Amino acid sequence: MATPRPDWEGMASSPAFQDLLRSKIRFIGVATVFFLTYYFALPILSGYWPDLMGRKVLGEFSLAYVFAFSQFPMAWIVAAIYLRVAAKFDRQAAAVVREYGPDSVVRGGTAAHADDLLTGESSQ
Amino acid sequence: MTAILMTLAFVVATLGITAWASRRSTGASSFFAAGRNITAWQNGLAVAGDYMSAASFLGITGLIAYYGYDGFLYSVGFLVAYLTVLLVVAEPLRNTGKYTMADVLAFRLSPRPVRAIASLSTLTISGLYMIAQMVGAGAMVSLLMRDTGIDFSMSVVSVGLLMTVYVVFGGMLATTWVQIVKAILLMAGVILLSVMVMSQFGYSFGALFEAATQVGYTENGAAVQRDFLQPGLYYKPPYGPLNLISLSMALILGTAGLPHILVRFYTVPDAPTARKSVVWAMGIIGVFYLLTTLLGLGAALLVGRDTIATQGGINMSAPLLADAVGGELFLAFIAAVTFATILAVVAGLTISASTSVAHDFYSNVVRAGKQTTPREEVTVARITAVAMGAGAVGLAILIGPSANVAFLVGLAFAVAASANLPVIVLSLFWRRFNTVGAVSGMGVGLLASIVLIGISPSFMGADAWFPLENPGIVSIPAGFLAAVIGTLLSRDTEAEKLYTELLVRANTGLGAEKATSH
Lengths: 124, 518
Hints:
heterodimer, A: mainly alpha, two-stranded antiparallel sheet, 66% helix, elongated, B: mainly alpha, Sodium/glucose cotransporter
Protein backbone atom coordinates (compact mmCIF):
# COMPACT_ATOMS: atom_id res chain seq x y z
CA MET A 1 0.00 0.00 0.00
CA ALA A 2 1.88 3.06 -1.21
CA THR A 3 0.87 6.26 0.48
CA PRO A 4 2.61 9.51 -0.38
CA ARG A 5 5.16 10.45 2.26
CA PRO A 6 3.83 13.37 4.26
CA ASP A 7 6.03 16.41 4.42
CA TRP A 8 7.09 15.93 8.06
CA GLU A 9 9.79 18.59 7.90
CA GLY A 10 7.41 21.10 6.41
CA MET A 11 4.82 20.41 9.07
CA ALA A 12 7.38 20.50 11.85
CA SER A 13 8.61 23.92 10.84
CA SER A 14 5.16 25.39 10.20
CA PRO A 15 4.28 28.26 12.54
CA ALA A 16 1.11 26.51 13.68
CA PHE A 17 2.99 23.39 14.77
CA GLN A 18 5.79 25.37 16.41
CA ASP A 19 3.16 27.28 18.29
CA LEU A 20 1.49 24.07 19.48
CA LEU A 21 4.80 22.56 20.56
CA ARG A 22 5.86 25.65 22.47
CA SER A 23 2.67 25.96 24.47
CA LYS A 24 2.56 22.21 25.12
CA ILE A 25 6.13 22.01 26.39
CA ARG A 26 5.65 25.11 28.51
CA PHE A 27 2.54 23.69 30.18
CA ILE A 28 3.92 20.20 30.70
CA GLY A 29 7.21 21.60 32.01
CA VAL A 30 5.58 23.88 34.56
CA ALA A 31 3.07 21.23 35.67
CA THR A 32 5.76 18.55 36.03
CA VAL A 33 8.13 20.73 38.04
CA PHE A 34 5.22 21.75 40.26
CA PHE A 35 3.91 18.28 41.04
CA LEU A 36 7.36 16.76 41.54
CA THR A 37 8.26 19.52 44.00
CA TYR A 38 4.96 19.22 45.85
CA TYR A 39 5.27 15.43 45.98
CA PHE A 40 8.92 15.08 47.00
CA ALA A 41 8.48 17.64 49.76
CA LEU A 42 6.39 14.99 51.54
CA PRO A 43 8.93 12.13 51.85
CA ILE A 44 11.82 14.56 52.43
CA LEU A 45 10.04 16.43 55.24
CA SER A 46 8.59 13.24 56.76
CA GLY A 47 11.92 11.45 56.62
CA TYR A 48 14.24 14.15 57.93
CA TRP A 49 11.94 16.30 60.06
CA PRO A 50 9.54 13.83 61.70
CA ASP A 51 9.10 16.08 64.77
CA LEU A 52 8.00 19.04 62.70
CA MET A 53 5.72 16.85 60.57
CA GLY A 54 4.32 15.10 63.63
CA ARG A 55 2.95 18.36 65.04
CA LYS A 56 -0.83 18.30 65.48
CA VAL A 57 -2.45 20.87 63.23
CA LEU A 58 -6.08 19.83 62.76
CA GLY A 59 -7.41 18.19 65.89
CA GLU A 60 -5.58 14.87 66.10
CA PHE A 61 -4.22 15.17 62.57
CA SER A 62 -0.50 15.60 62.25
CA LEU A 63 0.92 18.00 59.69
CA ALA A 64 2.31 14.90 57.93
CA TYR A 65 -1.14 13.34 57.47
CA VAL A 66 -2.75 16.60 56.33
CA PHE A 67 0.03 17.11 53.77
CA ALA A 68 -0.25 13.48 52.62
CA PHE A 69 -4.01 13.80 52.15
CA SER A 70 -3.56 17.09 50.27
CA GLN A 71 -1.57 15.20 47.61
CA PHE A 72 -4.80 13.57 46.40
CA PRO A 73 -6.70 16.77 45.50
CA MET A 74 -3.41 18.17 44.18
CA ALA A 75 -3.13 15.31 41.69
CA TRP A 76 -6.78 15.55 40.70
CA ILE A 77 -6.63 19.32 40.20
CA VAL A 78 -3.48 19.16 38.05
CA ALA A 79 -5.15 16.40 35.96
CA ALA A 80 -8.34 18.46 35.56
CA ILE A 81 -6.40 21.54 34.48
CA TYR A 82 -4.45 19.46 31.97
CA LEU A 83 -7.68 18.02 30.57
CA ARG A 84 -8.92 21.55 29.83
CA VAL A 85 -5.65 22.79 28.36
CA ALA A 86 -5.21 19.63 26.27
CA ALA A 87 -8.58 20.17 24.58
CA LYS A 88 -7.06 23.35 23.14
CA PHE A 89 -3.95 21.40 22.07
CA ASP A 90 -6.22 18.94 20.25
CA ARG A 91 -7.84 21.76 18.27
CA GLN A 92 -4.44 23.21 17.39
CA ALA A 93 -3.18 19.78 16.29
CA ALA A 94 -6.27 19.23 14.14
CA ALA A 95 -5.66 22.60 12.49
CA VAL A 96 -2.06 21.65 11.72
CA VAL A 97 -3.17 18.38 10.15
CA ARG A 98 -5.89 20.10 8.10
CA GLU A 99 -3.53 22.70 6.78
CA TYR A 100 -0.34 20.73 6.17
CA GLY A 101 -1.14 17.03 6.33
CA PRO A 102 -2.09 15.35 3.07
CA ASP A 103 -5.55 13.84 3.42
CA SER A 104 -4.43 10.63 1.83
CA VAL A 105 -2.26 9.72 4.80
CA VAL A 106 -4.32 7.56 7.09
CA ARG A 107 -1.76 4.94 8.03
CA GLY A 108 1.69 5.44 9.41
CA GLY A 109 4.93 3.70 8.61
CA THR A 110 6.08 5.60 5.58
CA ALA A 111 9.43 6.50 7.08
CA ALA A 112 12.53 4.52 6.24
CA HIS A 113 12.98 3.15 9.72
CA ALA A 114 9.44 2.32 10.50
CA ASP A 115 9.00 -0.90 8.54
CA ASP A 116 9.04 -2.82 11.80
CA LEU A 117 5.83 -1.01 12.64
CA LEU A 118 4.32 -2.69 9.65
CA THR A 119 4.87 -6.31 10.50
CA GLY A 120 1.30 -6.67 11.71
CA GLU A 121 -1.91 -6.70 9.78
CA SER A 122 -1.63 -3.14 8.55
CA SER A 123 0.88 -4.15 5.89
CA GLN A 124 -1.39 -6.67 4.30
CA MET B 1 -17.10 -22.92 51.97
CA THR B 2 -18.87 -19.68 51.04
CA ALA B 3 -15.55 -18.19 50.00
CA ILE B 4 -14.91 -21.08 47.64
CA LEU B 5 -18.38 -20.72 46.07
CA MET B 6 -18.00 -16.98 45.59
CA THR B 7 -14.56 -17.40 44.06
CA LEU B 8 -15.90 -20.09 41.76
CA ALA B 9 -18.72 -17.77 40.66
CA PHE B 10 -16.17 -15.16 39.63
CA VAL B 11 -14.07 -17.73 37.85
CA VAL B 12 -17.07 -19.04 35.90
CA ALA B 13 -18.16 -15.51 34.95
CA THR B 14 -14.70 -14.57 33.75
CA LEU B 15 -14.27 -17.79 31.82
CA GLY B 16 -17.54 -16.82 30.11
CA ILE B 17 -15.98 -13.48 29.17
CA THR B 18 -12.93 -15.33 27.85
CA ALA B 19 -15.06 -17.61 25.68
CA TRP B 20 -16.92 -14.58 24.32
CA ALA B 21 -13.67 -12.73 23.65
CA SER B 22 -12.06 -15.69 21.90
CA ARG B 23 -14.94 -15.77 19.43
CA ARG B 24 -14.58 -12.05 18.76
CA SER B 25 -10.81 -12.14 18.70
CA THR B 26 -9.73 -12.15 15.09
CA GLY B 27 -6.20 -11.18 14.14
CA ALA B 28 -3.27 -9.67 15.97
CA SER B 29 -4.63 -6.18 16.63
CA SER B 30 -7.58 -7.79 18.33
CA PHE B 31 -5.49 -10.26 20.38
CA PHE B 32 -2.83 -7.73 21.43
CA ALA B 33 -4.76 -4.45 21.55
CA ALA B 34 -8.45 -5.39 21.85
CA GLY B 35 -9.03 -3.92 18.37
CA ARG B 36 -8.27 -0.44 19.83
CA ASN B 37 -11.99 -0.10 20.50
CA ILE B 38 -11.98 0.30 24.29
CA THR B 39 -13.59 3.56 25.47
CA ALA B 40 -12.13 6.07 27.94
CA TRP B 41 -14.05 4.98 31.03
CA GLN B 42 -13.57 1.32 30.21
CA ASN B 43 -9.84 1.77 29.82
CA GLY B 44 -9.76 3.93 32.95
CA LEU B 45 -11.31 1.04 34.88
CA ALA B 46 -8.93 -1.45 33.28
CA VAL B 47 -5.87 0.68 34.10
CA ALA B 48 -7.16 1.14 37.64
CA GLY B 49 -7.82 -2.58 37.83
CA ASP B 50 -4.29 -3.41 36.71
CA TYR B 51 -2.95 -1.06 39.31
CA MET B 52 -5.17 -1.86 42.29
CA SER B 53 -3.53 -5.21 42.61
CA ALA B 54 -3.63 -7.59 45.52
CA ALA B 55 -0.26 -6.11 46.42
CA SER B 56 -1.87 -2.71 46.91
CA PHE B 57 -4.93 -3.95 48.72
CA LEU B 58 -3.26 -6.55 50.93
CA GLY B 59 0.19 -4.99 51.11
CA ILE B 60 -0.63 -1.35 51.87
CA THR B 61 -3.38 -2.23 54.33
CA GLY B 62 -0.80 -4.40 56.09
CA LEU B 63 1.87 -1.69 56.12
CA ILE B 64 -0.56 0.88 57.57
CA ALA B 65 -1.78 -1.66 60.13
CA TYR B 66 1.84 -2.16 61.22
CA TYR B 67 3.38 1.29 60.78
CA GLY B 68 0.51 3.80 60.36
CA TYR B 69 1.44 6.94 58.44
CA ASP B 70 4.65 5.52 56.98
CA GLY B 71 2.69 2.77 55.24
CA PHE B 72 0.26 5.31 53.80
CA LEU B 73 3.12 6.92 51.87
CA TYR B 74 2.90 4.05 49.38
CA SER B 75 -0.70 5.09 48.63
CA VAL B 76 0.28 8.70 47.99
CA GLY B 77 3.09 7.75 45.62
CA PHE B 78 0.96 5.27 43.71
CA LEU B 79 -1.61 7.96 42.89
CA VAL B 80 0.62 10.97 42.19
CA ALA B 81 2.65 8.75 39.84
CA TYR B 82 -0.23 8.93 37.39
CA LEU B 83 0.59 12.57 36.71
CA THR B 84 3.83 11.36 35.11
CA VAL B 85 1.81 8.95 32.98
CA LEU B 86 -0.74 11.62 32.07
CA LEU B 87 1.57 14.53 31.31
CA VAL B 88 4.58 12.82 29.80
CA VAL B 89 3.96 9.33 28.45
CA ALA B 90 0.39 8.26 27.59
CA GLU B 91 -0.37 10.36 24.52
CA PRO B 92 2.93 10.24 22.61
CA LEU B 93 3.04 6.52 23.27
CA ARG B 94 -0.42 6.00 21.79
CA ASN B 95 0.43 8.15 18.79
CA THR B 96 3.71 6.52 17.83
CA GLY B 97 3.44 2.88 18.88
CA LYS B 98 1.43 -0.16 18.03
CA TYR B 99 1.58 -2.97 20.61
CA THR B 100 4.42 -2.49 23.06
CA MET B 101 6.53 0.11 24.82
CA ALA B 102 9.47 -0.79 22.55
CA ASP B 103 7.54 0.42 19.48
CA VAL B 104 8.19 3.98 20.58
CA LEU B 105 11.93 3.33 20.90
CA ALA B 106 12.20 1.32 17.69
CA PHE B 107 10.51 4.13 15.80
CA ARG B 108 13.79 5.87 15.16
CA LEU B 109 16.44 3.64 16.71
CA SER B 110 17.71 0.39 15.29
CA PRO B 111 14.98 -2.08 16.15
CA ARG B 112 16.87 -5.29 16.89
CA PRO B 113 19.06 -4.37 19.89
CA VAL B 114 16.46 -1.98 21.31
CA ARG B 115 13.63 -4.49 21.12
CA ALA B 116 15.74 -7.32 22.48
CA ILE B 117 16.65 -5.45 25.63
CA ALA B 118 13.18 -3.90 26.01
CA SER B 119 11.75 -7.38 25.90
CA LEU B 120 14.16 -8.51 28.60
CA SER B 121 13.24 -5.62 30.90
CA THR B 122 9.52 -6.21 30.28
CA LEU B 123 9.91 -9.84 31.29
CA THR B 124 11.87 -8.91 34.42
CA ILE B 125 9.40 -6.27 35.60
CA SER B 126 6.29 -8.34 34.84
CA GLY B 127 7.91 -11.33 36.50
CA LEU B 128 8.72 -9.44 39.73
CA TYR B 129 5.23 -7.96 39.81
CA MET B 130 3.66 -11.31 39.15
CA ILE B 131 5.57 -13.07 41.92
CA ALA B 132 4.20 -10.50 44.38
CA GLN B 133 0.63 -11.27 43.28
CA MET B 134 1.19 -15.01 43.45
CA VAL B 135 2.62 -14.75 46.97
CA GLY B 136 -0.50 -12.78 47.96
CA ALA B 137 -2.74 -15.42 46.40
CA GLY B 138 -0.97 -18.22 48.20
CA ALA B 139 -1.17 -16.50 51.60
CA MET B 140 -4.84 -15.69 51.04
CA VAL B 141 -5.85 -19.20 50.15
CA SER B 142 -3.82 -20.77 52.94
CA LEU B 143 -5.68 -18.48 55.39
CA LEU B 144 -9.08 -19.47 54.02
CA MET B 145 -8.41 -23.16 53.71
CA ARG B 146 -6.70 -23.65 57.05
CA ASP B 147 -8.85 -26.70 57.72
CA THR B 148 -8.95 -28.21 54.24
CA GLY B 149 -5.99 -29.80 52.54
CA ILE B 150 -5.29 -26.89 50.16
CA ASP B 151 -2.02 -25.14 50.95
CA PHE B 152 0.13 -22.30 49.64
CA SER B 153 1.69 -24.21 46.74
CA MET B 154 -1.60 -25.65 45.49
CA SER B 155 -3.30 -22.26 45.42
CA VAL B 156 -0.36 -20.71 43.56
CA VAL B 157 -0.60 -23.47 40.97
CA SER B 158 -4.33 -22.94 40.47
CA VAL B 159 -3.88 -19.18 39.97
CA GLY B 160 -1.18 -19.93 37.42
CA LEU B 161 -3.41 -22.32 35.50
CA LEU B 162 -6.40 -19.97 35.39
CA MET B 163 -4.52 -16.89 34.24
CA THR B 164 -2.87 -18.88 31.47
CA VAL B 165 -6.32 -19.90 30.23
CA TYR B 166 -7.53 -16.28 30.17
CA VAL B 167 -4.56 -15.06 28.20
CA VAL B 168 -4.11 -17.98 25.82
CA PHE B 169 -7.74 -18.10 24.76
CA GLY B 170 -9.04 -14.59 25.29
CA GLY B 171 -6.11 -12.28 24.59
CA MET B 172 -6.27 -8.59 25.42
CA LEU B 173 -10.03 -8.29 24.97
CA ALA B 174 -10.73 -10.92 27.62
CA THR B 175 -8.13 -9.61 30.08
CA THR B 176 -9.46 -6.08 29.66
CA TRP B 177 -13.00 -7.14 30.50
CA VAL B 178 -11.89 -9.40 33.36
CA GLN B 179 -10.01 -6.37 34.69
CA ILE B 180 -13.07 -4.11 34.42
CA VAL B 181 -15.34 -6.56 36.25
CA LYS B 182 -12.72 -7.03 38.94
CA ALA B 183 -12.09 -3.29 39.39
CA ILE B 184 -15.78 -2.75 40.10
CA LEU B 185 -15.88 -5.69 42.53
CA LEU B 186 -12.76 -4.55 44.37
CA MET B 187 -14.00 -0.97 44.71
CA ALA B 188 -17.32 -2.27 46.05
CA GLY B 189 -15.51 -4.52 48.51
CA VAL B 190 -13.19 -1.78 49.75
CA ILE B 191 -15.99 0.77 50.12
CA LEU B 192 -18.13 -1.74 52.00
CA LEU B 193 -15.26 -2.70 54.27
CA SER B 194 -14.53 0.98 54.97
CA VAL B 195 -18.16 1.66 55.88
CA MET B 196 -18.13 -1.29 58.25
CA VAL B 197 -14.92 -0.05 59.87
CA MET B 198 -16.46 3.40 60.29
CA SER B 199 -19.57 1.89 61.86
CA GLN B 200 -17.35 0.65 64.68
CA PHE B 201 -16.35 4.25 65.37
CA GLY B 202 -19.86 5.74 65.19
CA TYR B 203 -19.15 6.91 61.62
CA SER B 204 -16.85 9.56 63.00
CA PHE B 205 -13.50 10.10 61.32
CA GLY B 206 -12.49 12.08 64.40
CA ALA B 207 -13.09 9.06 66.62
CA LEU B 208 -11.12 6.72 64.34
CA PHE B 209 -8.15 9.04 64.02
CA GLU B 210 -8.18 9.88 67.71
CA ALA B 211 -8.05 6.18 68.52
CA ALA B 212 -5.21 5.82 66.03
CA THR B 213 -3.02 8.14 68.10
CA GLN B 214 -2.76 5.39 70.70
CA VAL B 215 -2.26 2.00 69.13
CA GLY B 216 -1.00 -0.70 71.42
CA TYR B 217 1.04 -3.74 70.42
CA THR B 218 4.00 -5.80 71.50
CA GLU B 219 7.47 -4.78 70.35
CA ASN B 220 10.49 -6.89 71.31
CA GLY B 221 8.48 -8.56 74.04
CA ALA B 222 7.30 -5.30 75.64
CA ALA B 223 3.87 -3.71 75.32
CA VAL B 224 4.12 -0.30 73.62
CA GLN B 225 1.72 2.45 72.57
CA ARG B 226 2.36 4.44 69.42
CA ASP B 227 0.79 7.37 67.61
CA PHE B 228 0.03 5.97 64.14
CA LEU B 229 -0.49 9.45 62.68
CA GLN B 230 3.17 10.35 63.28
CA PRO B 231 5.89 9.74 60.70
CA GLY B 232 8.93 7.64 61.52
CA LEU B 233 7.57 4.28 62.69
CA TYR B 234 9.06 2.45 59.72
CA TYR B 235 11.56 4.82 58.11
CA LYS B 236 13.89 5.28 61.06
CA PRO B 237 17.39 6.75 61.01
CA PRO B 238 20.07 6.23 59.88
CA TYR B 239 18.94 4.96 56.48
CA GLY B 240 15.15 5.19 56.80
CA PRO B 241 14.70 8.70 55.37
CA LEU B 242 16.93 7.95 52.38
CA ASN B 243 15.13 4.66 51.85
CA LEU B 244 11.81 6.52 51.83
CA ILE B 245 13.05 8.99 49.21
CA SER B 246 14.40 6.11 47.16
CA LEU B 247 11.03 4.37 47.29
CA SER B 248 9.23 7.61 46.40
CA MET B 249 11.40 8.04 43.31
CA ALA B 250 10.69 4.46 42.24
CA LEU B 251 6.93 4.89 42.67
CA ILE B 252 6.60 8.27 40.97
CA LEU B 253 8.81 7.41 37.99
CA GLY B 254 8.17 3.67 37.79
CA THR B 255 4.48 3.72 36.93
CA ALA B 256 5.17 5.39 33.59
CA GLY B 257 7.59 2.57 32.79
CA LEU B 258 5.38 -0.37 33.73
CA PRO B 259 4.83 -2.39 30.54
CA HIS B 260 1.42 -3.76 31.57
CA ILE B 261 0.09 -0.24 32.21
CA LEU B 262 1.61 1.22 29.04
CA VAL B 263 0.10 -1.40 26.72
CA ARG B 264 -3.37 -0.36 27.91
CA PHE B 265 -3.03 2.89 25.97
CA TYR B 266 -2.93 0.92 22.72
CA THR B 267 -6.41 -0.48 23.37
CA VAL B 268 -8.14 2.89 22.91
CA PRO B 269 -8.92 4.57 19.57
CA ASP B 270 -6.73 7.69 19.93
CA ALA B 271 -4.57 9.91 22.15
CA PRO B 272 -7.40 12.09 23.56
CA THR B 273 -9.14 8.89 24.68
CA ALA B 274 -5.90 7.68 26.25
CA ARG B 275 -5.65 10.95 28.16
CA LYS B 276 -9.24 10.79 29.39
CA SER B 277 -8.77 7.19 30.45
CA VAL B 278 -5.81 8.20 32.66
CA VAL B 279 -8.00 10.79 34.35
CA TRP B 280 -10.75 8.19 34.89
CA ALA B 281 -8.17 5.88 36.38
CA MET B 282 -6.84 8.64 38.67
CA GLY B 283 -10.32 9.22 40.05
CA ILE B 284 -10.89 5.56 40.84
CA ILE B 285 -7.37 4.88 42.09
CA GLY B 286 -7.40 7.98 44.29
CA VAL B 287 -10.57 6.96 46.10
CA PHE B 288 -9.20 3.45 46.54
CA TYR B 289 -5.91 4.62 48.04
CA LEU B 290 -7.61 7.15 50.32
CA LEU B 291 -9.67 4.30 51.73
CA THR B 292 -6.56 2.22 52.47
CA THR B 293 -6.01 4.59 55.41
CA LEU B 294 -9.33 3.57 56.94
CA LEU B 295 -8.64 -0.12 56.32
CA GLY B 296 -5.10 0.00 57.67
CA LEU B 297 -5.88 1.99 60.79
CA GLY B 298 -9.03 -0.11 61.23
CA ALA B 299 -6.97 -3.29 61.13
CA ALA B 300 -4.46 -1.82 63.61
CA LEU B 301 -7.25 -0.96 66.05
CA LEU B 302 -9.86 -3.66 65.56
CA VAL B 303 -7.62 -6.65 64.88
CA GLY B 304 -4.32 -5.50 66.30
CA ARG B 305 -0.78 -6.03 65.14
CA ASP B 306 -0.17 -8.90 67.54
CA THR B 307 -3.15 -10.89 66.30
CA ILE B 308 -2.29 -10.23 62.64
CA ALA B 309 1.24 -11.45 63.20
CA THR B 310 0.09 -14.79 64.59
CA GLN B 311 -2.85 -15.36 62.21
CA GLY B 312 -1.37 -15.11 58.74
CA GLY B 313 1.09 -12.22 58.80
CA ILE B 314 1.20 -8.64 57.53
CA ASN B 315 -0.37 -9.44 54.12
CA MET B 316 -3.51 -10.78 55.78
CA SER B 317 -4.45 -7.56 57.63
CA ALA B 318 -7.34 -6.70 55.27
CA PRO B 319 -8.95 -10.17 55.26
CA LEU B 320 -8.61 -10.42 59.06
CA LEU B 321 -10.24 -7.00 59.36
CA ALA B 322 -13.14 -8.20 57.18
CA ASP B 323 -13.55 -11.16 59.51
CA ALA B 324 -13.49 -8.89 62.58
CA VAL B 325 -16.11 -6.40 61.35
CA GLY B 326 -18.30 -8.56 59.12
CA GLY B 327 -17.89 -12.14 60.18
CA GLU B 328 -17.24 -15.19 58.09
CA LEU B 329 -19.57 -14.33 55.20
CA PHE B 330 -17.92 -10.97 54.69
CA LEU B 331 -14.49 -12.54 54.92
CA ALA B 332 -15.61 -14.91 52.17
CA PHE B 333 -16.67 -11.99 49.99
CA ILE B 334 -13.41 -10.08 50.52
CA ALA B 335 -11.42 -13.26 49.90
CA ALA B 336 -13.24 -13.88 46.62
CA VAL B 337 -12.64 -10.27 45.56
CA THR B 338 -8.96 -10.55 46.44
CA PHE B 339 -8.64 -13.75 44.51
CA ALA B 340 -10.37 -12.14 41.52
CA THR B 341 -7.93 -9.24 41.78
CA ILE B 342 -4.96 -11.54 41.72
CA LEU B 343 -6.24 -13.50 38.73
CA ALA B 344 -6.99 -10.37 36.74
CA VAL B 345 -3.70 -8.62 37.48
CA VAL B 346 -1.65 -11.72 36.76
CA ALA B 347 -3.48 -12.16 33.46
CA GLY B 348 -2.76 -8.51 32.58
CA LEU B 349 0.92 -8.96 33.38
CA THR B 350 1.11 -12.13 31.35
CA ILE B 351 -0.43 -10.56 28.29
CA SER B 352 1.94 -7.60 28.32
CA ALA B 353 4.98 -9.82 28.75
CA SER B 354 3.93 -12.29 26.09
CA THR B 355 3.06 -9.48 23.69
CA SER B 356 6.55 -8.13 24.14
CA VAL B 357 8.16 -11.51 23.52
CA ALA B 358 6.03 -12.15 20.42
CA HIS B 359 6.15 -8.71 18.88
CA ASP B 360 9.53 -7.36 20.04
CA PHE B 361 11.65 -10.43 20.41
CA TYR B 362 10.24 -12.98 17.96
CA SER B 363 9.07 -10.85 15.05
CA ASN B 364 11.70 -8.17 15.18
CA VAL B 365 14.76 -9.90 16.57
CA VAL B 366 14.56 -13.63 15.87
CA ARG B 367 12.82 -13.26 12.54
CA ALA B 368 14.15 -9.81 11.76
CA GLY B 369 13.72 -8.79 8.15
CA LYS B 370 11.60 -11.80 7.29
CA GLN B 371 7.88 -11.71 6.95
CA THR B 372 5.98 -13.01 9.98
CA THR B 373 2.26 -13.44 9.96
CA PRO B 374 0.08 -12.04 12.73
CA ARG B 375 -1.03 -15.61 13.36
CA GLU B 376 2.56 -16.60 14.08
CA GLU B 377 2.93 -13.73 16.57
CA VAL B 378 -0.22 -14.75 18.36
CA THR B 379 1.03 -18.33 18.62
CA VAL B 380 4.37 -17.21 20.08
CA ALA B 381 2.50 -15.04 22.58
CA ARG B 382 0.40 -17.99 23.66
CA ILE B 383 3.44 -20.21 24.16
CA THR B 384 5.13 -17.44 26.18
CA ALA B 385 2.06 -17.09 28.38
CA VAL B 386 2.19 -20.78 29.24
CA ALA B 387 5.94 -20.63 29.96
CA MET B 388 5.59 -17.51 32.11
CA GLY B 389 2.77 -19.04 34.08
CA ALA B 390 4.93 -22.03 34.91
CA GLY B 391 7.97 -19.89 35.78
CA ALA B 392 6.08 -17.51 38.07
CA VAL B 393 4.37 -20.37 39.89
CA GLY B 394 7.76 -21.95 40.59
CA LEU B 395 9.36 -18.71 41.84
CA ALA B 396 6.38 -17.76 44.02
CA ILE B 397 6.46 -21.15 45.72
CA LEU B 398 10.21 -20.74 46.22
CA ILE B 399 9.85 -17.28 47.86
CA GLY B 400 6.97 -18.34 50.08
CA PRO B 401 4.24 -16.38 51.87
CA SER B 402 6.20 -14.18 54.31
CA ALA B 403 7.45 -11.11 52.33
CA ASN B 404 5.22 -8.00 52.27
CA VAL B 405 3.65 -7.90 48.83
CA ALA B 406 3.51 -4.10 48.51
CA PHE B 407 7.24 -4.05 49.18
CA LEU B 408 7.84 -6.69 46.47
CA VAL B 409 5.87 -4.59 44.00
CA GLY B 410 7.92 -1.54 45.02
CA LEU B 411 10.95 -3.37 43.65
CA ALA B 412 9.24 -3.93 40.28
CA PHE B 413 8.57 -0.16 40.20
CA ALA B 414 12.25 0.52 40.86
CA VAL B 415 13.30 -1.64 37.91
CA ALA B 416 10.72 0.04 35.64
CA ALA B 417 11.85 3.51 36.71
CA SER B 418 15.53 2.69 36.17
CA ALA B 419 15.41 0.69 32.94
CA ASN B 420 12.36 1.95 31.03
CA LEU B 421 11.45 5.47 32.01
CA PRO B 422 14.78 7.17 31.17
CA VAL B 423 14.87 5.84 27.61
CA ILE B 424 11.17 6.52 26.97
CA VAL B 425 11.53 10.13 28.07
CA LEU B 426 14.80 10.71 26.21
CA SER B 427 13.54 9.17 22.99
CA LEU B 428 10.49 11.46 23.06
CA PHE B 429 12.22 14.68 24.08
CA TRP B 430 15.85 14.54 22.91
CA ARG B 431 16.62 14.70 19.21
CA ARG B 432 20.23 13.60 19.70
CA PHE B 433 19.19 10.34 21.49
CA ASN B 434 20.32 7.14 19.72
CA THR B 435 20.55 3.35 19.83
CA VAL B 436 23.74 3.15 21.90
CA GLY B 437 22.12 5.43 24.47
CA ALA B 438 18.95 3.34 24.60
CA VAL B 439 20.75 0.04 24.97
CA SER B 440 23.21 1.30 27.59
CA GLY B 441 20.46 3.13 29.50
CA MET B 442 18.19 0.11 29.67
CA GLY B 443 21.06 -2.30 30.31
CA VAL B 444 22.60 -0.27 33.14
CA GLY B 445 19.20 0.59 34.67
CA LEU B 446 18.15 -3.05 34.65
CA LEU B 447 21.46 -4.38 35.95
CA ALA B 448 21.90 -1.68 38.62
CA SER B 449 18.42 -2.14 40.07
CA ILE B 450 18.58 -5.93 40.10
CA VAL B 451 22.10 -6.09 41.60
CA LEU B 452 21.26 -3.49 44.27
CA ILE B 453 18.13 -5.42 45.24
CA GLY B 454 20.28 -8.54 45.49
CA ILE B 455 22.73 -6.93 47.91
CA SER B 456 20.05 -5.03 49.90
CA PRO B 457 18.98 -5.78 53.50
CA SER B 458 15.93 -7.66 52.18
CA PHE B 459 18.18 -10.39 50.84
CA MET B 460 21.41 -10.03 52.83
CA GLY B 461 20.01 -9.12 56.23
CA ALA B 462 21.42 -6.58 58.67
CA ASP B 463 24.94 -6.24 57.26
CA ALA B 464 24.00 -5.91 53.61
CA TRP B 465 26.46 -4.26 51.23
CA PHE B 466 23.83 -1.76 50.10
CA PRO B 467 21.92 -0.19 53.02
CA LEU B 468 18.64 0.73 51.26
CA GLU B 469 15.76 -1.68 50.61
CA ASN B 470 14.71 0.18 47.48
CA PRO B 471 17.45 0.82 44.89
CA GLY B 472 15.70 3.73 43.08
CA ILE B 473 17.80 6.62 44.33
CA VAL B 474 20.94 5.06 42.81
CA SER B 475 19.64 2.97 39.93
CA ILE B 476 17.31 5.61 38.39
CA PRO B 477 20.06 8.24 38.00
CA ALA B 478 22.36 5.44 36.80
CA GLY B 479 19.86 4.55 34.07
CA PHE B 480 19.55 8.18 32.98
CA LEU B 481 23.28 8.78 33.09
CA ALA B 482 24.11 5.65 31.09
CA ALA B 483 21.54 6.64 28.46
CA VAL B 484 23.02 10.13 28.14
CA ILE B 485 26.65 8.97 28.08
CA GLY B 486 25.90 6.19 25.60
CA THR B 487 24.20 8.72 23.35
CA LEU B 488 27.05 11.19 23.49
CA LEU B 489 29.60 8.48 22.64
CA SER B 490 27.98 7.81 19.28
CA ARG B 491 26.12 9.62 16.58
CA ASP B 492 23.16 8.50 14.48
CA THR B 493 22.12 11.19 12.01
CA GLU B 494 19.35 8.97 10.65
CA ALA B 495 17.73 8.78 14.10
CA GLU B 496 18.07 12.53 14.48
CA LYS B 497 16.39 13.10 11.13
CA LEU B 498 13.54 10.76 12.06
CA TYR B 499 12.98 12.75 15.24
CA THR B 500 11.16 15.36 13.19
CA GLU B 501 8.64 12.75 12.07
CA LEU B 502 8.30 11.39 15.61
CA LEU B 503 7.68 14.87 16.95
CA VAL B 504 4.93 15.61 14.43
CA ARG B 505 3.27 12.24 14.92
CA ALA B 506 3.47 12.30 18.71
CA ASN B 507 1.90 15.74 18.88
CA THR B 508 -0.71 15.54 16.13
CA GLY B 509 -1.67 11.86 16.04
CA LEU B 510 -1.09 11.84 12.29
CA GLY B 511 -0.45 8.30 11.08
CA ALA B 512 -1.34 6.72 14.43
CA GLU B 513 -2.72 3.18 14.48
CA LYS B 514 -6.45 3.20 13.89
CA ALA B 515 -9.15 1.20 15.61
CA THR B 516 -10.51 -1.79 13.73
CA SER B 517 -14.23 -1.64 13.15
CA HIS B 518 -16.45 -4.46 14.30
